[in-house]
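STRUCTURE:
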């Protein structure tokens, strides 16, 4: 859909906004650009956590990029991030639609339900991992295995089986991160003009048809923005995985953020960790650029 406003009007509005944005851009430069530039500097060095840089070269880049475990780490990161983002979007959208529908029908308990979902958001990542570690305890008396035992299902190897460990990590991440997606979609859904649904109802559209014809198109920008934010957040997730599985079994759940953490704080390799941080930064930037490009085409 193309904008109906002349290009000259849009340019004048951007020019008037620049002086107001300058202080914010300066703060972003100080708090974000400077650390990123320092990471670039360290990536070309031989720095460790116990020794300052003594030389600068491309050797660290070569060592990290030729590391035999890096492809496995990147694949694990892709699986964890991709599945988490899809589930976070779907669950967040379902909860948001449920809340809006319940509020418009005057159902009691909607505020309490919304608060319950938001409560998981404020739980620290380490605490989130520890909570789910207790729930996923593989002993027959573990919480989830005990519940499964009541329906005749044997104990599940939640954390010792590579596939189930990944599923467990995704569940823990979704439980904590769903609230953010819910807030984004809740606000976007409330902003849709109810008249559109009234007209669709008059035309004989059922709820499913109205969802695909009205709700999804109206939420496309919110979906795109939420995809960027959730993806970047998930790419940087390591604390809950550290507490839940430690990256195991083997490297089954060792995502790039956790691999970077281990490289710096266990191997004391600050230069190698900086290179990995740049790779993580590049992945997030590339994904955000793709989504922003799509947004610009939609707005053009």
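SEQUENCE:
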């Amino acid at each position: 859909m193309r904008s109906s406003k002349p290009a000259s009007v849009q340019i004048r509005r951007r020019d008037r906004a620049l002086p107001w944005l300058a202080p914010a851009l300066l703060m972003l430069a100080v708090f974000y650009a400077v650390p990123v530039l320092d990471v670039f500097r360290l990536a070309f060095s031989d720095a460790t956590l116990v020794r300052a840089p003594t030389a600068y070269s491309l050797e660290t880049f070569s060592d990290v990029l030729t590391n035999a475990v890096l492809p496995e780490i990147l694949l694990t990161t892709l699986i964890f991030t991709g599945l988490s983002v899809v589930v976070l979007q779907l669950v967040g959208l379902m909860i948001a639609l449920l809340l809006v529908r319940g509020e418009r029908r005057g159902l009691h308990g909607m505020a309490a339900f919304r608060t319950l979902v938001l409560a998981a958001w404020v739980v620290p990542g380490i605490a989130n991992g520890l909570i789910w570690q207790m729930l996923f305890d593989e002993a027959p008396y573990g919480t989830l295995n005990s519940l499964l035992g009541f329906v005749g299902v044997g104990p599940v190897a939640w954390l010792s089986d590579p596939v189930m460990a990944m599923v467990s990590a995704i569940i823990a991440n979704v439980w904590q991160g769903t609230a953010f997606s819910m807030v984004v979609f809740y606000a976007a859904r409330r902003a849709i003009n109810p008249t559109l649904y009234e007209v669709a109802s008059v035309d004989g559209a059922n709820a499913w048809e109205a969802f695909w014809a009205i709700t999804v198109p109206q939420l496309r920008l919110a979906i795109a923005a939420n995809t960027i934010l959730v993806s970047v957040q998930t790419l940087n997730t390591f604390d809950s995985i550290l507490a839940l599985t430690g990256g195991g079994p083997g490297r089954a759940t060792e995502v790039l953020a956790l691999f970077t953490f281990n490289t710096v704080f266990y191997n004391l390799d600050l230069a190698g960790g900086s290179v990995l941080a740049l790779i993580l930064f590049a992945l997030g930037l590339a994904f955000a650029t793709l989504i922003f490009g799509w947004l610009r085409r939609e707005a053009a």
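REMARK: The mean pLDDT is 87.
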